[in-house]
């Protein structure tokens, strides 16, 4: 949780909302029946206090406090609810706006896998950016453009569907396992093989996905571990992504070159969670294949379960 985050407490405690600010936000929320009715899908694992703290935290980064903080947090909650409504996120797990063929293509094209829990119980997700085939990614984005919603490419909607699965299903299970709410995620971004051919992946997919998650799931990133970093990250991905991140979020980014990848990963997760791509035994499972019962028949188990040879 935000309140227990060592990085936050060590460097950004001045952004932590007071109990009074959280209570004021709760009062304003209860006075807005429409927004209060939408909170079912905004609140993670039924913990309204933790959710309001995250939105108040986001508001305080704008330099407001007291009642102004509560009012700004309510605006952010309303923005989140409106975005969810426009993108159809409340029903995206069961009734997505895009066809099954696009979903299957997303699973086959974007290597996004789940690898268990980090040392503090955080869900661990790996995106192998260099593992995406530029040609296949281009086809996915072109097909996704046809099914865009509110100017958001359906390929990004597929990513958000995985996020919904993560926060609605995986986080509750993980929280029950460790005995407390774990609503913050460790994201590993592997840059091995990234080159200029991945420009569309960076600009039309990853950067757009990051922009949406800031609105929809504020302050849910524990760390971003960028591994196998080389010139491609410094010149292609990081300048794009950095502009979208608050200084607090920028500080969560840990960059490691190939020689220190294993060392850096083991600072945040146990050896049992170490992905097979980095010498571990955890093959992971594609985030899209964690959806039940709606798993595309066209996607077989070999695609869902990533291996060293993929």
Please describe the structure with a list of short key phrases separated by commas or semicolons.
310 residues, alpha/beta, 2 domains, PI/PC_transfer, Phosphatidylinositol/phosphatidylcholine transfer protein SFH7, CRAL-TRIO_dom_sf, CRAL-TRIO_dom
Percent of residues in beta strands: 5-15%
Mean pLDDT across all amino acids:
88
Spans of at least 5 consecutive residues with low confidence: 293-299
Give the name of the CATH superfamily of the largest domain.
Answer: CRAL-TRIO lipid binding domain
What is the CATH first-level class name of the largest domain? Alpha Beta
Fold-level CATH name of the largest domain:
Phosphatidylinositol Transfer Protein Sec14p
Given helix and strand content, the structural type is alpha/beta
- Main sheet: which strands, in order across? 5-4-3-2-1-6
- Count of separate structural domains: 2
Question: What is the approximate shape?
Answer: globular
Largest sheet: 6 strands, mixed
Please count the helical segments.
13
- SSE order, one letter for each helix or strand: HHHHHHEEHHEHEHHEHEH
**How many extended strands?**
6
CATH architecture of the largest domain: 3-Layer(aba) Sandwich
């Amino acid at each position: 949780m935000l309140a227990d985050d060592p990085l936050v407490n060590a460097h950004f405690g001045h952004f932590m909302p007071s109990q009074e600010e959280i209570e004021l936000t709760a009062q304003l929320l209860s006075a807005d029946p429409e927004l209060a009715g939408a909170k079912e899908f905004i609140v993670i694992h039924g913990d309204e206090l933790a959710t309001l703290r995250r939105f108040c935290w986001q508001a305080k980064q704008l330099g407001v406090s007291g009642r102004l903080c509560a009012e700004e947090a309510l605006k952010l909650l309303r923005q989140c609810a409106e975005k969810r409504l426009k993108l159809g996120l409340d029903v995206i797990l069961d009734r997505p706006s895009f066809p099954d063929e696009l979903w299957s293509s997303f699973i086959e094209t974007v290597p996004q896998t789940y690898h268990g829990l980090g040392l503090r119980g955080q869900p661990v997700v790996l995106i192998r950016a260099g593992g995406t085939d530029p040609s296949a990614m281009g086809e996915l984005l072109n097909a996704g453009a046809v099914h865009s919603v509110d100017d958001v490419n359906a390929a990004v909607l597929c990513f958000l569907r995985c996020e919904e699965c993560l926060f609605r299903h995986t986080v509750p299970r993980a929280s029950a396992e460790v005995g407390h709410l774990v609503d913050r995620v460790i994201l590993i971004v592997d840059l091995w093989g990234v080159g200029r051919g991945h420009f569309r992946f960076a600009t039309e997919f990853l950067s757009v996905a990051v922009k949406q998650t800031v609105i929809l799931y504020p302050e849910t990133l524990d760390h971003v571990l960028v591994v196998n970093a080389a010139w491609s990250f410094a010149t292609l991905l990081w300048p794009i992504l950095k502009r979208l991140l608050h200084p607090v979020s920028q500080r969560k980014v840990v960059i490691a070159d190939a020689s220190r990848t294993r060392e850096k990963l083991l600072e945040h997760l146990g050896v049992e969670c170490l992905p097979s791509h980095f010498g571990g035994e955890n093959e992971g499972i594609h985030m899209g294949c964690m959806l039940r019962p709606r798993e595309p028949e066209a996607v077989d188990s070999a695609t869902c379960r990533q291996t060293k040879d993929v």
